[in-house]
TrEMBL record, chains A, B:
CDD domains: M20_ArgE_DapE-like
Family under the similarity heading: Belongs to the peptidase M20A family.
Alphabetical list of Pfam families matching this protein: M20_dimer, Peptidase_M20
Keywords for the protein's UniProt record, in alphabetical order: Cobalt, Hydrolase, Metal-binding, Zinc
PANTHER family the UniProt entry points to: ACETYLORNITHINE DEACETYLASE, PEPTIDASE M20 DIMERISATION DOMAIN-CONTAINING PROTEIN
Cofactor field: Co(2+); Zn(2+)
Residues annotated as domain Peptidase M20 dimerisation: 205-314
Originating species: Arthrobacter flavus
Protein name: ArgE/DapE family deacylase
Length: 422, 422
């Protein structure tokens, strides 16, 4: 256990640097690190980690290596544009503590129509205690929290007594291949902290996600013969209805899935994108839509996918229906209760917040599954209060970020151990 | 009335040139004259008309002039890419007959996915009595029929005794602005023949058409909070349902519209294109779709549009719904029975087909409305048997084309009168 005096030195150090932390977070937000456009933001992360004396590693994701892994989801952009950044801290003396990965993803989702934002998604303005911007919550505040929590120890005259890998990965929003590539590269540890925007709580369990693109097609005709022509847009909605029946069936089974029993609607099939037809006066012959489906922990992606394929094969639409996987092909995970890592996080959180750490189940994808399922590493997905991630006017609560940063700093000190440097 | 001997000379001349007519039709089909890409096909029409000694006129459509006309539909492509071609025949001697416009449109609709065609849409292959290809029926066979019907008189040693304007226009498939521009340029006559693919029949009445693009939008969120997020793709489908209620209401009123009483479904609202959403794992914030709506003759486009706007304003979707006009803004027309022009066509048709000319009502747009409504010119929309126009494997029946060409040739001779040139 950290002494009250050390605890205070660390949390004071977070406070002392917090303005700079916000400035850095804002700078990160101002890099629009949309998918395959993460390079400049990764440059910034690289530079910042390097300036802290970390041993730097930056590499391009490799399709061949990744695709051999059961957790791989098909990447549909050029691999040339995808690089991970990892900076490694190694203690000067013997590593007496427990090793740690501080993980975060640099990629952000599209803004949607920018005119629906009340401001630019990239200006990172702070107003009424919230920092706005695409990626502010999901999860540049978390990436900055990792970095500045690490800084706080040094500023407090302390050095972690174990190896720490600071990771900035890509592809968390679409495949999870970034964290998977980091694991495949050999980065492992005794715990991982991922400060995703989680309402100051710990994620106990989450769903797996599969992305797929459905194509519905048939024979069109002139609109004057519409009664005889197949209408792919109408048929697509029928297929969506078929998929939602499968979704309802899976939701009805929530009682048999630990940690999901009390969620109102744990399994969401989201129709996120649609396109179809070539001409207003022709009955549309094709329609494609993109689906994000969720699955419970313990259900393999392969099993879920075969149910989805069967659903599409048996579609009531009467159309030709085909589907290809287009991203995530991931299982969910459960963070089993009672780990040492969770215990340390709980005490750090209690120290900072003055209240017990709560855990919850989240029906969204998290890279935590990579570490838990394939690395045997307890994944502590824990982070600040946010609103409207993936929506308009995404924002993160500034004081929550401060407290989360303090919690992570205390966690590092307790988990890794510290030596005095003064 | 034409003598049997002259009739035979003319129809024999059509037969004699029919192989060349098919070759020329195929050449036209091999020019993919998609919207705003009609130039090379118009070059060909220009050259062919010029070679026949017609006085040539080719001009670019003009937005300012067009948009002042009540029948204008907003053009959404560059006007620079849109030119009409008209060749005018003037008799050497006094014009003793009735003047005529032979009209056809050069533009074709998109092919849709080409792999759904059994062959290239542009190879114009003839198989089992049908010529295949996008535009084969709609309406390059008709453009060629106009030209070769005109040729047949000359080959038969006859010269028309009235002015004939041979028109190849653009924009028939999207706005009708091509024929409208020709009318505005001053081209008028006592009758117009438009050999659209009409099953060897005469169009008695047709619908007007309005094109518009609907945008449905709202506030999205992360899919994990899907219950709280607005889903624009779902909302779009609700709006489509609202529009179909309006469509049903209009169809229910068919009994009060002359020539439409007996059609099963005269009013079609076609959802021809759709797009929406930015990311599979974000609840979609926007969705746009393109609608082609039909209206009865006698209903002004402005009236129909105000009903459509009210329908969208009162949408049950709970979404923000807006719409812009994106093409056709046209009224339907009726070809009143008993015109001299129809009488002449009926006798020409009887002569060639050995059966009475039938007329029918077609629930699709036709440029006939330009001449009928705004020029006071009887529009004879009459042409060959086709299948799958606007669909896959569009085709036109070769022997039907031959007969239609003969009918048009006899019509020219009877309507315009002829003088012997031998």
């Amino acid at each position: 256990m950290l002494t009250p005096e050390i605890t205070k030195r660390i949390t004071d150090a977070v406070d002392a640097a917090f303005d700079r932390q916000l400035e850095f977070t804002a700078e990160l937000v101002r890099h629009p690190s949309l998918r395959a456009e993460e390079a400049s933001a990764q440059d910034l992360m690289f530079t910042q980690m390097e300036a802290r004396g970390l041993a730097m590693d930056r590499w391009q994701l490799d399709e061949e290596t990744l695709s051999a892994h059961v957790g791989y989801g098909p990447t549909t952009v050029a691999f040339e544009d995808l690089t991970n950044v990892v900076g490694t801290y190694t203690p000067a003396g013997p590593a007496t503590g427990r090793s740690l990965i501080l993980n975060g993803h640099i990629d952000v989702v599209p803004t949607g129509p920018e005119d629906t934002w009340s401001r630019s998604p990239w200006d990172a303005e702070i107003k009424d205690g919230w920092m706005y911007g695409r990626g502010s919550g999901d999860m540049k505040a978390g990436l900055a929290a990792n970095l500045f929590a690490f800084d706080a120890l040094r500023a407090a005259g302390l050095a972690p007594a174990a190896v720490i890998h600071m990771q900035s990965v890509v592809e968390e929003e679409c495949t999870g291949n970034g964290s998977l590539a980091a694991l495949q590269r050999g980065y492992t540890a005794e715990a991982v902290v991922i400060p995703e925007p989680e309402e100051n709580m710990l994620v106990r369990a989450n769903v797996g996600v599969i992305w797929f693109k459905v194509r519905v097609s048939g024979k069109p005709t002139h609109v004057r013969e519409m009664a005889t022509g197949f209408n792919a847009i109408d048929a697509a909605y029928t297929v969506m209805g078929d998929l939602r029946e499968l979704q309802d069936k899976w939701n009805a089974d929530k009682g048999s899935h630990r940690y999901f029993e009390d969620l109102e609607h744990p399994i969401n099939f989201n129709i996120g994108m649609i396109s179809g037809g070539d001409w207003p006066s022709s009955v549309p012959s094709w329609c494609e839509f993109d689906v994000r489906a969720a699955l419970y922990p313990g259900v393999t992606a392969a099993d879920a996918w075969s149910q989805i394929e069967a659903c599409l094969r048996d579609s009531t639409s009467g159309a030709e229906v085909s589907a290809v996987r287009s991203g995530f092909f991931s299982e969910g995970y459960v963070l089993e209760e009672g780990s040492d890592a969770e215990g340390v996080l709980a005490s750090s959180h209690q120290e900072v917040f003055g209240s017990a750490l709560e855990s919850f189940t989240t029906p969204g994808y998290l890279d935590g599954r990579v570490f838990t399922l394939y690395g045997g590493i307890p994944a502590l997905v824990y982070g600040p209060v946010s609103e409207a991630i993936h929506g308009f006017d995404e924002r993160v609560h500034v004081e929550s970020v401060r407290k989360v940063t303090k919690t992570i700093a205390l966690f590092i000190a307790e988990w890794c151990g510290v030596t005095e440097t003064r």
